[in-house]
Specification:
mainly alpha, single chain, extended, 0% strand
């Protein structure tokens, strides 16, 4: 199955922890392989909530996430 590039934003501390784990464990692990495994597990968990079945194809575009202001904690 072809792969597509995906851009995401993650907390810098989480990314540093991931980089440290990959560096220390090595053994063929990559950031990409870990993220891909994590996404697969997340989708399986969501499908489990759907009776263990894949969701039907969507009919339309996904809603866009609201943009957060850099440095804002959302309070106010």
């Amino acid at each position: 199955m072809p792969k597509i590039p995906v851009g995401i934003r993650v907390e810098s501390e989480l990314m540093e922890r991931l980089k440290n784990a990959v560096w220390h464990l090595g053994q063929g692990l990559t950031i990409t392989s870990i993220i891909e495994q994590s996404l697969e597990q997340a989708v399986q968990d969501l499908e489990a909530r759907n009776g263990g079945q894949p969701f039907p194809p969507r009919k339309g575009k996904l809603p866009k996430s609201p943009k957060k202001n850099e440095g804002s904690d959302g309070a106010g």
